[in-house]
């Protein structure tokens, strides 16, 4: 399954809304699925929700496996502590795609320094903020009015601080992690 192209089409294929517009167009078609297809679908859902490539997700899975403990929870923590995911969760962008673009275009600062690659890992205690120029972008203003941060993020006047590593139950992702772990454990 190709995760490039129109977001509404990808949303219909995966059965989850990736953008607000896709929510309107989403209709599920029930059907029989093999175990492999179910695992593949869950892996693709996770990839699409974080906008990461196949190789990136496999590398994150290997890192989560090395950490020990619950591999699925560790995988979600690694994905959720990417700077583009935190920009989305802090309410600076409406979609992961917009969050990634903000980072790539240099509108995001981590601890006062510009970061321009969306996979940058954020540690607990780090501060994520937008530049002054970015706060004037109409899409950012709209997103900030509608946004609400999860409990593991602390919103301050000029940015968001990652309080602690998020638990798997705190992360708003539509995915069955055990199936993703089974897929990569084959």
Short description:
This protein is of the alpha+beta class. Helix content is 49%, strand content 9%. The protein has a five-stranded antiparallel β-sheet with strand order 2-1-3-5-4.
Report on the architecture of this protein.
- It is a single chain.
- With 186 residues, the chain is of the alpha+beta class.
- It contains ten helices and five strands; from the N terminus they run H-H-H-H-H-H-H-E-E-E-H-H-E-E-H.
- It has helices at 7-14, 20-25, 35-50, 54-67, 71-80, 83-89, 96-104, 132-135, 138-146, 177-185, and strands spanning 108-110, 113-115, 127-130, 153-155, 160-162.
- The chain has a five-stranded antiparallel β-sheet with strand order 2-1-3-5-4.
- A hairpin with a 4-residue loop joins strand 4 (153-155) and strand 5.
- Helix 4 (54-67) packs across helix 5 (71-80), helix 5 crosses helix 10 (177-185) and helix 6 (83-89) crosses helix 7 (96-104).
- The longest helix has 16 residues, at 35-50.
- The chain is globular and about 50 Å long.
